[in-house]
From TrEMBL, chains A, B:
Keywords assigned: FAD, Flavoprotein, Oxidoreductase
GO MF annotations, alphabetized: flavin adenine dinucleotide binding; oxidoreductase activity, acting on the CH-CH group of donors
EC number per UniProt: 1.3.99.41
Stated name of the protein: 3-methylmercaptopropionyl-CoA dehydrogenase
Domain Acetyl-CoA dehydrogenase-like C-terminal positions: 471-598
Subunit structure: Homotetramer.
Length: 605, 605
């Protein structure tokens, strides 16, 4: 995969500076030390590092894979050097405050850098970046001593982290986990249990790995209310911070997967010798809340993973379509002497590319918008604004995670299709990207779990006010679009969409209130997809508005096709894809219950 | 993969005998020797063979893969025994006339047997079954001598066949191929060229392989009008049928693919020593027409491949959903002491399963309906009927091929989703099925190629009368549904669908007539998908009618859930999925041209 196929720098700049006005962040005191140049510098450096060090390991890491031998996990050899450089470059804590070892950058900017760091080789990032979430939990809930012992080393990448949540019989149903913790006299806890599907559960890239482990203290309440989190280091960390004895936690096997072959997915055994020790993080029985600090971050990360795969797949397919000659122009199809044309000239190929472009553009703006909300939360223009920004992040997180997972995979599938037969071959990167991307709909909570979170927890937040604020913000963009000739024709469809999105939420809410839980949840993923479609429409319209404004005020000649492309993309979405969303809304508001009333035996088999 | 996950025997019987009244075929003289028992016997035998001999090789063949060493291709070792048995069982020519070595069965019945033979292990079938198409071409276009030399040995499976069409720079654009043929004094032809992506291009399962090769005779017209077909045996076949010297055709490499690892995808070199010989099949420069005999059969085969993958994936996911316990019933979600339930109890899992079931059921009926049309063509109640049946096969072939490819892959993706994390692991068969299925949208003509065939050649057949006949047949089922209480509520939606399908075809036709070729072709795949959706609706309604009739006349108690499931499936499709199709129709008839008018540079990159 060559350099130009990683995250589209031109488009990143557009989103940052044209769509979301990243420069205005520097007017706030906490970001006053930065300016557009420094923002660009960070992104340039991330890009340079990604292209030079990570990119060459993408296919290689897939082929080298992970080795497992008697409890020892060895990542792809080619990951060692970039891992060292990643650590030296201090890439992990870009948005953390300087006092905890961070760079203090806006989330919006670290998100752009993250697109390169996460998106170029996610199997690599799964080692390098998971420690961030563990560090964040310790920053928020740990004692000062725990921070001293673990946090900075996690943020610096000197050690890595994991999340030991899933067990063989407790995946999505976290409350069913059985790993146990019993107190020791010295204030530590003895941990016993087995965990499954643990990303980067073991490796030899660092001297130590800090495992946050979900476990149940003996006698704790059943379900999620009786879960606590313990910090279980691979190598025990002495009071003075020095490394002690290996702890009683081992990897008992790794999974062979469809993709992400360079990432170690481990089964872990804790306390098989009875000597696994951990430290309680935060309060006993409050583990779920603490874990969600990390989980929400991980879900946003997966949303970015999926769209990064999609972005790379799109750029590769686009380049292939521009260079691969096959067949004649449609007007000359019957003339065998006509020259063959690049396949981008074929209308169906253009249709596929434009569908992909709409997805990738929309998903990028969506992910960056959430980062911008995180900045609004941090900057806190007013306490109300601050809270609303955080609530909107909460509302949109399951949508970003699941929608990007679904659509990201769809874009990868289309990329294979643009390549034709070549796309099915290992020789072409889109095949690997597609295998790597599928997991995004599964881990950190499947689409079904995200949709339950959206429907059961997020939609009704603050009596629906958060959702209403989302609609209001969408309508604000529609109003802006109405002021410009280029985007005005799209506003009728957009208004109707926002209004129908409200209807859908009402239908869901009513169904829940009336106790038709099963019917409501049978429509939960379609509802999430509808919300995602609406966010895409919003983001694409917003992009078109930003592009039309720039064109109106005079763009550089060489940039005009790019800006026109933004408007065309929105036109395509509204004309070709939005009617399908409206159809989905039609189906949703009818609230059919066949899936619920179907007898189990009726499924056949 | 255990036995019950291969093709659903209960459903096959329903389609054959309830939906399509297979028994009535035996009233026709050509099928008078058969009865329901003999039909069932053939299918039972196919099933027994598939389960006992093919199924154990599915995962194994994927892991063993194909070996290539200096021109020699070795298929998975585990394919040898089933290949011998396949040949001994005379499974290849079930529907051919006895005089050419066939069993004379109705296509409808051989199609059902084929679901087991093709669907259980497609990598295996790709060796065993490709010879059929080559045999068919020779049966139709070969000289008596060619039939004696090749046809029976292909039909019996003593030798296998291929199709050497694609070249590195001429894939979809067949007319651009450059392989050349020059006449020799002895009536043979010297062939020179290279071919790519040749399925089963070489192997050692048989003594000989017959390669039909598309090539251009020196001085032939440019494009597809100058293409001829030559029979190029791997080992030369002497006049008396004995084997001669190895011919100058070698495999130069095999592809590493996403899936179908047990199937050899070969690059072939012809005439590298200047001594590759072939025999002209049929008339010079008429190769395209001859090739389409094989190609149409191959396209139907791919449609069956894709839906067989989907069927297996569905049955596996269904079984997993019935046995995997995780989480509590939605009404007891907040009670941690409530027992965990099989995941089929979760509304979103049911929704996924029912979407999958609708696809699989609809695709099975669709494929079997085409086989039934082939029987109508063969039986020929009247010359008009006979021609119309053949025309309908022509109209529907690109739809079956592409639609089943798209939806089949979609079902496989959903199956992975039902499995959650486990679905991403090599340990579970759905992962392999998904990788194996992706190719169905690509080979034998991509979705784009199928949609062009549909739009440019098939839709306008006989001034649109063939398409109108399709609509009339759909409406006939709607009328039948109106007579039954169980299905009457679906008829309003169904009528509207048929009428809107007509509108869509009109919009496409108008666009073509007015010369808006690019706009029309930019909507060609969406149009094909709409047609496929409509066929699904038709088939599911037809199934519901058949089920409602059987229920009305009194079904066995144990069969009632199955029949109810047919009606629920149709209800689900009409309530949850059909509005989405109506949305697609809305988008199509608006004929947006953004994909066409977009500047190339506007795509970014």
């Amino acid at each position: 995969m060559a350099a130009q196929y990683v995250a589209d720098r031109r488009d990143i700049d557009f989103v940052l500076f044209d769509q979301f006005d990243a420069e205005s962040l520097t007017h706030h005191p906490i970001y006053a030390d930065f300016n557009r140049k420094t923002f660009e510098m960070v992104i340039n450096e991330a890009r340079k590092f990604a292209l030079k060090e990570l990119l060459p390991t993408y296919g290689l890491g897939d082929r080298q894979g992970v080795q497992f031998d008697r409890g020892t996990v060895t990542p792809p050899e080619c990951f060692r050097r970039p891992f060292e450089l990643f650590r030296e470059g201090e890439w992990l804590a870009l948005s953390e405050e300087p006092e905890v070892g961070g760079q203090g950058l806006p989330f919006l900017v670290s998100n752009a850098a993250g697109e390169y760091l996460i998106g170029t080789n996610f199997a690599f990032s799964s080692y390098a970046m998971l420690g961030h979430g563990a560090g964040k939990m310790i920053e928020r809930y740990g004692t000062e001593h725990q921070k001293d012992l673990f946090m900075k080393k996690l943020y610096s990448g000197e050690w890595t982290g994991t999340m030991l949540l899933t067990e063989p019989d407790a995946g999505s149903d976290v409350g069913a986990l059985t790993t146990s913790a019993t107190p020791n006299d010295d204030g530590t806890w003895s941990i016993y249990g087995t965990k499954a599907f643990i990303t980067s559960g073991d490796h030899d890239l660092t001297d130590n790995i800090i495992h946050p482990v979900l476990a149940r203290i003996e006698g704790a309440p059943a379900g999620t209310k009786g879960i606590s989190i313990f910090l279980v280091p691979k190598i025990w960390v002495n009071e003075d911070g020095s490394l002690g004895e290996p702890n009683d936690i081992v990897c008992t096997g790794i999974e062979e997967k469809m993709g992400l072959h360079g990432s170690a997915t481990c089964s872990m055994s804790l306390g098989s010798k009875g000597t696994c020790r951990g430290l309680l993080l935060g309060e006993a029985n409050k583990g779920m809340r603490i874990m969600f600090t990390m989980m929400n971050e991980a879900r946003l990360g997966v949303g970015i993973q999926a769209f990064s795969h999609a972005s790379a797949a799109y750029l590769l397919a686009l380049e292939y379509a521009r260079t691969r000659k096959q067949g004649r122009a449609v007007e000359e199809a019957l003339d065998p002497t006509a020259p063959s044309v690049p396949i981008i000239d074929h209308p169906d190929v253009r249709r596929m590319l434009l569908e992909m472009k709409c997805c990738v553009d929309g998903m990028r703006s969506f992910a960056y918008y959430i980062a911008l909300l995180m900045d609004h939360h941090r900057m806190g223009a007013s306490p109300d604004d601050q809270e609303m920004a955080d609530d909107l992040v909460g509302l949109l997180t399951p949508v970003l995670k699941a929608y990007n997972g679904i659509k990201g995979y769809d874009v990868c599938t289309k990329a294979i299709q643009v390549y034709g037969g070549a796309g099915y071959l290992r020789d072409y990167t889109v095949e690997q990207i597609s295998r790597d991307c599928k997991i995004a709909s599964i881990y950190e909570g499947t689409d079904g779990i995200q949709a339950m979170d959206l429907l059961a927890r997020k939609l009704g937040m603050k009596k629906g006010q958060v959702f209403m604020e989302l609609l209001a913000r969408m309508n604000r963009t529609v109003e802006e679009a109405a002021e410009l000739d280029a985007t005005r024709p799209l506003t009728e469809g957009a208004s109707k969409l926002v209004s129908r999105l409200g209807d859908c939420a009402m239908a869901m809410g009513k169904s829940l209130l009336e106790g038709n839980l099963r019917t409501a949840f049978a429509h939960s993923v379609p509802f999430l997809e509808i919300m995602g479609d609406a966010v895409m429409a919003w983001m694409l319209l917003w992009r078109a508005v930003a592009a039309a404004r720039t064109l109106k005020s005079g763009a550089k000649k060489k940039d005009i096709p790019f800006y026109n492309g933004q408007i065309k993309g929105a036109e395509f979405f509204f004309s070709n894809l939005l009617p399908v969303t409206m159809g989905k809304m039609e189906a949703l508001t009818a609230l059919g219950d066949a899936a619920v009333t179907m007898e189990d035996k009726g499924f056949g088999g």
